[in-house]
Amino acid sequence: MSIRVKLLFWLSLVSVLMTASMGYISFNNSRQLVIKRFTDELSAATRSMSSRYQAAMGGVTNDLMVLSHLSNLRRLYEKEGQAQANAKNDLAVVFTDFMRVHPEYLQMRFIEYQHFGREVVRVDRKGNELVRITGNRLQEKGYYPYVYQTKLLKPGDFFFSGINLKQENSYALRPNSPSFKAALPVFDENNKPYGVLVINVALDTLFTALKNDTARDALLYLANHEGDVLIDPDPKKTFGFDVGRRYLLQNDFPQLAGFFKNNRENLSINDPGTLQKAGYLASFTRIPMGPMSDRQFLVLGISIPYDNVLSITQQLQRKTLELFAMFALMAVVFSFFISRFLTAPLNQVIHAISHADENLRSTFPLPVRQRDEIGLLARTYASMSARIASQVEALRDKEKNLNELLEAAPSMIVIIDWETDEVLFMNNRAKAKFAHASPGGVVNPLQSFETHATAQRIRKTLEAQKVLFDQETRLYDSEGSPFWLLFSAIHTQYQDRPAILMSSTDITEQKRNEQRITQLAFYDPLTNLPNRRLLLDRLNHEIALAHREDKYGAVLFMDLDRFKVLNDSYGHHLGDELLIQVANRILSVVRAEDTAARLGGDEFVVIVHGNAATPEEAADESLVVAKKIMEVLSSPFDLGHTRHHTTPSMGIALYPVGNLPAGDYIQQADTAMYMAKDRGGNTLNFFQPSMQESANKRLQLEKELRTALEEDQFCLYYQPQVDDTGRVIGVEALVRWNHPERGIVSPAHFIDLAEETGLIIPIGSKVLEKVCHQIKQWESAGIRLNHVSVNVSSKQLRQPEFTEQIEDILKATSVEPDRLMIELTERVVIDDLDDTIRKMLALQRMGIGISIDDFGTGYSSLSYLKKLPLKQLKIDQSFVRDITTDPNDAVIVYTIIQMAKSLGLDVIAEGVETEEQLRFLKEKGCTAYQGYFFGRPSPDGGLGQHPRPHSNPDPVTSPATAAGVSRPAQS
Amino acid sequence: MSGKWLLTGTPVSNQRRRPSRFGRGSSLMGCCLLLLNLLCVNAARAEETLRVLTWPGYADPDIVQRFEKETHTHVTVTYISSDDDLWNKIGPNRGQDYDVFAVNTAELQRYIDIHAVLPIDLSKVPNHRNQTPRFQNLKNVTGMTRHGKVFAMPYTYSEMGLIYNKKLVPTPPTSINALWDPKYRGKVLAYDASNHNFSIAAQALGFKDLFSLNHDEMMAAARKLVDLRRNLFTFYTDPDQALDIYRHYNIALVYANFGTQQVDKMRSKGLDIGYVIPKEGALAWLDCWVISAGAKDMNLALKWINYSLDPQVSETLTERQGLANTLKPGAADKGDAKIIWLQSIAHPEERIRLWQEIRAGAQPDAL
């Protein structure tokens, strides 16, 4: 709300309130005055009526006084006889005259105290006539109060009776007319009371006159000294005491209760009334009667209803309201002009200020000449705006300088909105950089961070620390090329928005230089392999890691046989070329975690990452790496115009051993290498003799295996498979190595190595060929088996040409494919399920049966069982072994059998060794068995030339030879 | 005992004032409420109910409660305000609406006439034996019997003796004629009433039947009353007024229209007065219990009557109302004091007419 409106409001309010209260006060005062005036008027009226009544009484007493001095009276008691009679007559005439003059006089009497208070002269008013009562009609009144009480009065005192309606006579002088008696004693010459003058005064005329004199809206009351109502607005109440009912004035006006007891002359009552009872104004006055005024008096009162009084004040009220409205309006108008007058210069100031330019200078005039607070305000503003203008100027200069500084700064300065990432400011350097970085133009460098998650880190740090100094980060430009930035960031405010200020320098060049220096320092410039320094550093690192993780690794030391000869013969140029190619070939075969380094000359070192749990494993791993290197180096090198063969010599040292320093391991490997070189090169040697031995053994075994293949030292044993009746339905072919020195060697001793070396493939082919030949042999001998099972290893199966290979063998030997049963372990099957299924389907199409070996040990899943084209499930011997003792195994066996049946597969239990196991299996529903209980593997499968049903297996021999051999070797 | 007299209403016959425990203005309202209350209570009970009609003060609630407790009955009390009121309640239905009511001997006669009351078997009112000798032979009590049957049981009475100022009257007056004694001219207070005053005048004149005067006797009594008037200081209309005048003027004799009640009041103000029953006998009203012709349970009605003669009940009446009871000898029982029980008056209107003349101050020859 504007000051002007406020001013107008408050001024108006105050003026109106003041006017209202003045109006109210004056109205109230006037009203009080009106009431007072009315009260006074009432009081005056009652007093006037009282005077009038008293005047009337005074008239009566005057008459009595005059009468008491009549000579006639004296004659009444002075003389007897005629004179007295005349005196009576005269008095009667006087009485009659008086009564003629005073129509309110009902009766006039003279009563003597003698003769029992006999009436002497009496004139009654009967209707309109005045009648003198004489003779025996005169009565004796001695016992009446107005007689016996008057007798006691002092001279000059009057007697007044109470006012009532009743008449003492047997006939009423004027029925139902209020009247009273006034009496005056008459004394003789001795001042002895002689008689009494009595006037009966009718009050109805007086009362009527009083009533008529009362204002129309006023009510008249008259009561005797006890409060009995004589005149009342309700005529029924008047003179109630005469008929035995009392109506007291003080009942209607409780305030009068005290008035009747004390001697107060007047009483005014202002009773505003209540909701139930109307208010009134009243005034009462006491009219004394005669000498016994303390006992006898009248109370006269007039009351006016409040409404009548207030009818006058209503007019006043209306007038007051009109005046109030007028004054209030005037006050508002006045307030309006005052407020306008007072606020005009203020508005001028506001107008001028609100139209001020950015330097707060206004084109509109300010009331600076005003000699009050507003003038002061205007002057203050004027000087203030001048000051501010100059300060703004200064600030602008500073800002300009700052901007120039920002532009001139060697850094890229970017300000980014904290919330929206909007770029708020960029100096030209930054624009150039980031415009280049983004094909669309300027880009927010922070958004480039997002890919690094660095942005989040920066934000978090800024949130906590507000500043971030000298951070390096790598960004990528739109082409994916990295570039480096060194930046500082500040969480700040820019244009009232939370923002990040980043100052950054492109340090890509610097970084590149650093890299180059590192390369030079740690890398062999020829091959780019780590040099000795870096090698030692890495090795130290690897050793520490191996120590911590309790792992073992190896160091390979290698040099090229006869490198010196090459170098000398063809020159360094070719030597260097060879070294580069050798380095590249080494890098192509070592694992990512391994490190290949060049020590100098033709010496290379490879750190085999410590990943092995035991030194032996580490040796194995290093051996693999070494062999790979040897293999890769075995093919000729193309050295420009010449092809060159080279062979390496290698020494291997295992780490960690104790707390040897890195150099020692290199030294050991070097030593081992020289030992190898001593043996003619193109070989490797372990530093530790035991390791050397084991490795050598394996090398020996491998060598022997190759020889065995060449010399066909492998032979096959067959174990029979029988049905419930004990009839041999098939055999399982099991490979054996007939070693020239060690005799028959179990596959357990060579299969793993065969797998490792890949010899398993040629061995497998050999076995299949032998099996087929045997089948053919048996068939020509008349022994026909349902099938011969052959185990096929993973590597065999994975050969792309595996099925063709089998097909070729079958064709070559002309064996019916359904004679052959391929056994695959569950692990092999699920190794590459798609490939397996594809091959199985191919085998199935040929008619070859497929059996799952060791069923139950792997991940037997109904889903793949259903998918696979199987013929047979072979229950693993581990279940069969404990079938009688372990209820779980019994359940598993039962489940497998039931499952196989529901899938329509044959089921065979292997490892059956006791009759009990057989019985159990039979109970569970198994129909085919294999195990020592039926026959051990033998070159002829126990069939000889004439295979016959196996009916009575040898219980004594079976278990004796079972240990370790029952598990058929995978061929 | 101020406030015991009913100051409003038309004067009842026999000119006596009934005591009221219920004050002046509120008595009627109080009675109505009580009546309503009692009726309601009655309606709620199935017990035997005794319907009592009587003057205020004759059967106060505590007295009634005791009776109810003792007899295990219920009592409804209805109050009357005047003889006429009583007549209106009993007469038209011949007492069918009430079992017991109180009535004075003079009034009783007309109820016997219409057979509205039943005779009383005295043997069923054992407390009767405890009454003073005056009431032992009820046949001697005027108006109690008819054809040898007792119709009423006296309960309370008030005789109208003479009060004298011991200072002015050294020797207690003996005769009613003391009121006419010239010695006391202008010092006598008489009561402003026609009926008793004529009876007194008749007494003074030695007439035999005070309540039924022939014309000559009436006129003689009237003249006698003029004489009485001439000997008076003035007439009074209520005991308070009499007391007031007595204290302000020289008064020697007062005709005690209100009997012992009035005497007690004056004595309580410390006035040195004496009270005598004139040898001609004092007029007296006697209130009795009678059994209504409509009484439902005669025995219960008799029990109530007997109960009212219980010393405690009768004493309570005397104590509270200043009225004499029938068990304890009162002023009227001294020596051979004679009581003249009020009887119904022949030609009351004639007495009233004459009295108005006399009261206005008529001379003897003007009557």
Quickly list its features:
heterodimer; A: 971 residues; alpha+beta; Beta-Lactamase; Alpha-Beta Plaits; eight-stranded mixed beta barrel; six-stranded antiparallel beta sheet; 30 helices; 47% helix; elongated; disordered C terminus; B: 367 residues; alpha/beta; D-Maltodextrin-Binding Protein, domain 2; 2 domains; eight-stranded mixed beta sheet; five-stranded mixed beta sheet; 11 helices; globular
Walk me through this protein's architecture.
The complex is a heterodimer of chains A (971) and B (367). Chain A has 971 residues and is of the alpha+beta class. Chain A contains 30 helices and 32 strands. In chain A, the strands form six sheets. An eight-stranded mixed beta barrel of chain A has the order 24-25-27-28-29-30-31-32. In chain A, helix 1 packs antiparallel against helix 8, helix 2 runs antiparallel to helix 3 and helix 16 crosses helix 17 (615-634). Chain A is elongated and about 215 Å long. Chain B folds into two domains: 13-156 and 287-328, D-Maltodextrin-Binding Protein, domain 2 (3-Layer(aba) Sandwich), CATH 3.40.190.10; 162-276 and 342-366, D-Maltodextrin-Binding Protein, domain 2 (3-Layer(aba) Sandwich). In chain B, strands 1, 2, 3, 4, 7, 13, 14 and 15 form an eight-stranded mixed beta sheet that branches. A five-stranded mixed beta sheet of chain B has the order 10-9-11-8-12. A two-stranded antiparallel sheet of chain B has the order 5-6. In chain B, a hairpin with a 2-residue loop joins strand 5 and strand 6. The chains are: A alpha+beta (971), B alpha/beta (367). The A-B interface holds A 116-119, 136-145, 148, 168-170, 244-246 and B 7-10, 186, 229-230, 232-235, 249, 356-357, 360-363, 365-366.
Number of strands of chain A: 32
Largest interface: A-B, 21 and 20 residues
Poorly predicted sequence stretches spanning 5 or more consecutive residues of chain A: 945-971
Which fold name fills CATH's third level, the topology of the largest domain in chain B?
Answer: D-Maltodextrin-Binding Protein, domain 2
Strand-residue proportion of chain A:
15-25%
CATH architectural category of the largest domain in chain A: 2-Layer Sandwich
Report the average pLDDT across residues of chain A: 82
Name of the top-level CATH class of the largest domain in chain B: Alpha Beta
